[in-house]
Amino acid sequence: MTKDQIDIYHDKQESKDKTEHQRQMSQQLGKISRKQKIKVKLDKKKKIVTDQSKDSIKGTDDPSDPGCSSEKSQANIFGPNQQTEEIIEESVHQTTKLENEKETTENYSWEKTFRRRPGTRDMGKPYEDTIISNIILNLLNDHETQDFQISSNADNFGDFDDVVIETRTSRGFKTRAVQLKHSDRRRITLKQLARKTGDFSLIKYFNTTRKIQHKAHRFVLFTTHEFQPEKPKFKLEGENFFLEVVKVVVADESLRMSDKENCCYIFRIVEDEENVGKIQEYGAFFEQFCLYTDQERLETLRVSTVNKFMRMFGAKEEAFEKYFKIVSEWSLEDGIKDKLDKNRMQRTIALGILSPQIECLVFGQVTDKMRVLRDAIFSFDLTLVQKSGGEVVRQLWGDATDTIDLDELNKLRSTYGLSSNYINKLEDIDGKILAQLLWLMNKTPLIVNEHVNMSRAIRLCSDAKFILLGDGKRKIWMRYYTVFQSLLSLKLKPELYNKVTQNFTISLQGKATLTLVEAFGSNEDFLRHITLNNLLEMLDGPRLIDGDKETLPIPYIERSLSLNIIDIKYLNNVSNNTVIILNCEDHPEEVKRPSSKHSLTEIDDFLDSPNHRTLLVPIFVVSKNRCSQSEFDKVCSETLQPKTVHYFKFLSNKNLEWVRSRGDISDLHNYKLGGHSRNETEFWSFDFTKTINLVIGDPGMGKTELTKSLKNKCPCDYWTVIVTPQEVNLFFKQSKDRNYLNSFETFILDEKYHHLDRLDKAYFRMCVKQNRVFYVWDALDEILTKYLDSVSTLIVQLSDQGFTQWVTCRRHLKSFFEKKFRVLSVSINQFNEREQEDYLRTRLDNMSDDVEAAIDKVKSSFAFIKHVDILGIPLQIFMLTEIIRQNTEKYLKLLDNSFLLTDLYHYFIDTKFELFYQNKLSINVQEPNLKRLVDRDKKTLLAYCEKLALGAIFPEGADINNLDDVDNVFHDCASVGIITGLVNNTPQFLHASFAEYLVAVYFSKNFEIIPRDTFFDQKFNNVRFFFDMLLARNSPAHVAVLYRNCDVLKHYDDEMLRRKDRGGRSALHLVCSWGQRRSRLAVTKSKVPRNCSYFIFLLVKKIVFSESVTSEKFVIQDYDTLSGEIETRGYLDGVLHLMNKCDVFEPDGLLGMTPLWYSRISESLGVELELLKFQKLRLDQPYSEFDRINILYYSALFGYDDVVKVFSDEQLPTYGEVNFVTTDDNITLTSIYICTTCVRLLCLSLSLFCV
Question: What InterPro entries does UniProt report for this protein, alphabetically (predicted)?
Fold first, then answer.
């Protein structure tokens, strides 16, 4: 049995015992004398008082303790009763405790309605309503009162009909009937109490109770009159027994109207000589009767009631007025009506407090997913939704009115005083009122905006459902409720959890959808981040994580990428200590061991057998399936001796496709086969497995668009992070140590993804933890040079952690990154002729009457450019079609003349300005007067754009803050559409080439500020190309050189070939600066011992020279391969033709440099060797010792033995050691020891070898 059941059992037993005891006493009273009767009476009183004392002492609680139940507080607030027999004879000023009436536990009629006695509307109604309002507050504050019912002017309680209070606790039921007497404050006398009639006649009230069929547990006369008894005892008129007046503290907490004490009186029979039966009736009456006096009058009572209400609920007085109005209107209702019960009053008060914050519902179509979510919401007491989800959550119960009963609706409307008008149709009812009615009908939760004191109102409705719109965070007061805050809340409700996780979906970066269970499983650390708002976002489709797909140009032509195809002959020349993994899933029968010295084994056997680990011969490991990254790493870890591991895919043509390597890859370059490519979609499907992928592309080839396409096509459960050059610069600027991994993840979240919400960031962290992140490093050629080594280190660190990465850059960093990452790069191919035609046809459709004729004209305009295909470069063909689309007739006509790349940029920017003035500023640029103003303004803005571009390309040499009013300047330039943003105080242009073009324009007008020390760096090749083309605008020979159309030079006359551009340079100066670049080799010095023998070793034949020398040695590291041509034959023919027509020793008018100096500063080695060979013994520029070693090395390597004659014996290296090294591991392929007597023979020998 529970504690409550035990208490009820004891209460029942005690009640039976008392009833039996009273029956036996009544039988004995008829047989004994008067004196004995009095003694028995006193004994009975003593027993009752003693029982009371025991009850009160047993298990008392501190009534001030907020955790103490209200009933216990009422039972013990007076303290232990010490009354004994002597108290009866003491004065009325003795305070005691009123005996607590026992609840009824059986056969209690808990009726919900009552009949209002007719004719009871009188002047005391406001007082009566205020009393009822106060009583309700007291009962709501009593935690032991499980339910209550209040009736007023009930026709079955006689004079005690003003207020009837019925309560139910865990121990049973009890009823209190109250008669109210409110008037000007007067004094009650004992004489008034003793009379047979009058407002305070005890005899009248005794007779009234005898007629009441529904017996109450207590009858209360409640008045504002004062009462100070003149004496302790008095007799009723016509009766012989005495009544003792006993003052008690408030006996019933529900009737405590104020903080006053000692205002309650009870009456006890002292003695009687006759009429024992009537004494028993009076005794039973007075045991149930009490008199409350000195109560507050209406004005004061109302104030205290309002204050109590505001104190209890933290509400404003307006909420009390709503509550009081409902009580008053209820009391006026005639006939049979509902009693005021606890549930009704709780909701009445709650609605009154919450009504300003209640949200309306939105009615409409409801989907299955909406039903699933609202079922989940209805299984919790409270649902927390951030305000941003308010609009959607209001739609969940869009069908709530489909099956509504208007009669029930009107009854609730009347019961809760929500509207005075009868509802004939739903369209006529206010939205807030309808939301409240549906909540009262338990059809929907109540959607409420969070505010400070709402918790007290919600606590009134323990079994109701609420949706709280606010910050979505759980509050302390919610700990007693079931709260739906995140998906984790549903874990304890498996059926609902499965429905939600299987029906609600996400899309990572706009890719294929994943159900929540597919995306996250049961990862509790992550489930807590999926809030109700996130689920609401999934109702109309998948919730986008990190936004939608990247937007690609229309049309987007998929790029073609070169493949790293290795000649099968390489397998016959594999060096020792090398492991080759061959993926032969498509052609397993064709893989054979190249020779007897090689070891061929299956990958499983290799990993299981320790014997292979120390073999010095090449090992071929065959895999019949793709070798995963983890398997590759395992092979690497199992091979202790080899320094190099290569993984190839075996192709049908018996060649190899390189996949990945560990260690040196330099030996692969000599076996690369060109001419192989693959569409990007096919490329991604295989190459997603590589940890580092290096993509090379010239300016405008669409590297950034390619990375966006990659992001859209990567696996749907992988997160792709595109890291921009500006973000790289910012990260390393902030980094304080070289352990970049942890700080990089933090940087990505704080800087790049600072705008994402908790769910997105949590998902990113989960992907990082599970290595499901692709890092795409876009345009690393645009980062600050000083960060190249640092970013390489970070990329390698991420690769070691197992992250797949893609790196894009321009061609000048190809060798650098290949060496750093030990990978073979792939290149983006230009659009082929078919792709160009498809693109032109799509873009120019509807722009010209004859699209095919327009396409032919565009193609023919650039046909003379053989080696630089403008239409094959995505950016340039886009720009060309864009300007034609804006003004088809104008630009097709312009194509009739020579159309240079700089013209394309000029017209494109000009078109942007026209659109800016016409569309954004609504200016007619064709109107003559306005055109002058527009041209002047455009000139000013272009000058600003040029300076902003200078700051973007040369950030260390130009400060955009020097511009006047830089913010407005930037805003105006950005409005044109050439500049897209400002990152770390660096302008971001539509494309880097626009900034490079504008810088070239600026330099073409300001020769004096050209930075000679960096102008010829490969990083600024595009700036220099635009600059040279701007200066060569009217010189066909210069243009031919820039487009590498050197074969047309022979068709120009001498005058045209010797013509100077705007910078005072001949075509020879220009051709010497644009040859194929071959970097200077690094040369280091170190001391060597005296009297040592040195030898020359060649790969084909050994030529031995012995020389005893002392001094230094020189070590050359060849970062390029030893293969490949130094320059194309056609270009060298053009150089030779110009050397014969121009003065090879003439300085230019721009920088004062000779052709030889141009070739040296631009590292055009082939041109430099031709010039040295042509100039014979004349050197117009001094060569350092290291430069001479470089020249001698390349002269020998490429057969320019005559170049040695240019240097005198004094200029040749007198002695030293030169090691030709091709890897970072210092593997020496050829060691050459040079002395004065053998230099020419050495060069001749090498030239013979190279031939």
Answer: P-loop_NTPase
Beta strands in 593-731 (DSSP E): 599-602, 619-623, 644-650, 656-662, 672-673, 677-679, 692-696, 719-723
Sorted by sequence, the CB contacts under 8 Å of residue 653 that are 6+ apart come out as none
Give the pLDDT score at 594.
Answer: 56
Sign of the Cα torsion 743, 745, 749, 752 reads: positive
Q: What span, in angstroms and rounded, lies between the C-alpha atoms of 519 and 824?
A: 34
> What is the C-alpha separation between 845 and 851, in angstroms, rounded?
6
Per-residue pLDDT reduced to its tens digit, 511-531: 999 999 999 877 888 888 999
Both tokens of 1188, joined, read 């001479």
d(C-alpha 1196, C-alpha 1189), whole Å? 11
Buried b (16+ CB within 10 A) or exposed e, 938-955: beebbbbbbbbbbbbbbb
pLDDT score of 330 more than 60? yes
**CA-to-CA distance for 1024 and 1011, rounded, in angstroms?**
11
Enumerate residues 6+ apart whose C-beta is below 8 A from 444: 361, 397, 400, 435, 438, 465
Q: How many CB atoms lie within 10 A of CB 981?
A: 11
Say if strands 986-989 and 242-248 run parallel, antiparallel, or are unpaired.
unpaired
Nearest to 844 by CA among 891, 875, 881, 813: 881
Q: Can you tell me whether residue 289 is helix, strand or coil? A: strand
> Quick one: CA torsion of 168, 171, 174, 180, rounded to 10 degrees?
-80
**SS3 category, 1228:** strand
Task: Write the single-letter amino acid at 234.
Answer: F
Contacts 24+ apart (CB under 8 A), 1224-1228: 1224/664, 1224/819, 1225/643, 1225/664, 1227/664
The strand ranges marked E within 347-399 are: 382-386
Where would I find the beta strands (DSSP E) of 398-524? 446-449, 466-470, 483-484, 505-508, 514-515
Q: Which of 921, 864, 857, 922 is nearest to 888 (CA)?
A: 857
Spatial contact of 913 and 925, defined as CB atoms under 8 Å apart: no
pTM of the model: 0.74
Q: Which amino acid is at 944?
A: Y
In this structure, are strands 773-777 and 719-723 parallel, antiparallel, or unpaired?
Answer: parallel
Structure tokens at 873: 């470069």
* Phi, psi of 452, rounded to the nearest 5 degrees: -60, -50
Contacts of 844 (CB under 8 A, 6+ apart): 851, 854, 855, 881, 884, 885, 888
How do residues 1131-1178 score in pLDDT, each as one tens digit?
Answer: 999 999 999 999 998 999 999 999 999 998 988 888 988 888 887 645
Angle at 372 between CA 371 and CA 375, to 5 degrees: 85
Residue 1027 vs residue 121, higher pLDDT: 1027
How many residues does this entry show for the chain?
A: 1251
Structure tokens at 418: 């929500």
Alpha helices in 1129-1224 (DSSP H): 1129-1141, 1155-1161, 1165-1175, 1185-1198
- List, as own/partner pairs, every contact residues 12-21 make where C-beta atoms lie below 8 angstroms and the sequence separation is at least 24, other chains included: 12/105, 12/106, 14/102, 15/102
At 1182-1240, the pLDDT tens digits run 677 667 767 777 776 777 767 766 666 555 554 444 444 333 333 233 334 343 334 44
Q: Rounded to an integer, what distance in angstroms lies between the CA atom of residue 138 and that of residue 131? A: 11
Instruction: Choose among 1105, 1063, 1113, 1064: nearest CA to 1085.
Output: 1113
Q: How far apart are CA 136 and CA 149, in angstroms?
A: 9
Work out the average pLDDT over 1099-1118: 35
Assess contact for 1243 and 1195: CB atoms under 8 A. Answer: yes
CA 303/CA 294 separation, integer angstroms = 17
Please, which residues have CB within 8 angstroms of residue 319's CB and are 6 or more apart in sequence? 309, 313, 349, 352, 353
> Above 80 in pLDDT, residue 1031?
yes
